[in-house]
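Work package 3, deliverable 3.1, input record:
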Amino acid sequence: MRLLAILGEGLADPATPVICADDLGLSRGDGCFEGCRVVTGTGGVSAVDKLEAHLTRMGHSAAALELPFDAGSWRELVTSACAAWHEPGEAGMRLLLTRGRAGSGVPTGLLTISPLPSFYPRQRREGLRIITLDRGTSSAAYTDAPWLLGGAKTLSYAVNMAAQREAERRGADDVIFVSSDGDVLESPTSSVVWSVGRTLHTTPTGASGILPGTTQQLLFARAADQDWQAVVARASVDDLHAADVLWLVGSVRGPVDVVALDGRYRERHTAVDTEIRQMVGFPAP
Ligand code: PLP
């Protein structure tokens, strides 16, 4: 982590200890977060991709957790962080909100900027080897169950990280979760998007509990202007095998095409892949 800012205080030395041992974000994973891409030009001016979409989603996550969220204060914190960040290229920004210290009723809000994970350039260039894993919940498990926090980006990502370690153990790069009744859900840190001809597809949020992806939403909004159809519908792993191109799509890594799914190799379609990456601001690798 190379830059730290504290909600209500502003920029701080990145070495500052900021979490107490009884912070409920630490002891219970009780909080929410956003992961955004910061892009800095050669002149050293930094901006966050689709900041408003991230703040809107964080507002929804905080509401689901019954945590206070003031978008204006977060916007100001992001502005001061960007003004202090000048390293040309891409970086990852995290906005973290926890319930704070046990019994205090005072949430903890932090912003960090870190370099991109070192393996992203290789994954973007070479594509992703993916395995599907059963997430153990049905495609309708989140219906009428707001306490399950479906669609909220909570801090409780231990299961997602465990799934990625399982992928690594099996010689893959990442995972696509499937519901117990066979629906494609999402990836631990990405949405799932695929193309058939000039139609883009993704999986529905809501009853499935998956996170509404800001990158997928931007892609689908722009696709309509660029001679693409866009469809949100339930799908099976067989539908993914039958797709022309399959991507994992997220804010920081961008859209990255899948080159192997459950050990079956997929042909790469560079022209379509480049078109989709560029549509959401990621150059061809
Ligand atoms: N699904 C999950 C579980 C995620 O963690 C993410 C990343 O934040 C996404 C999907 C993709 O969302 P976005 O495009 O907003 O980064």
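The chain has a mean pLDDT of 98.
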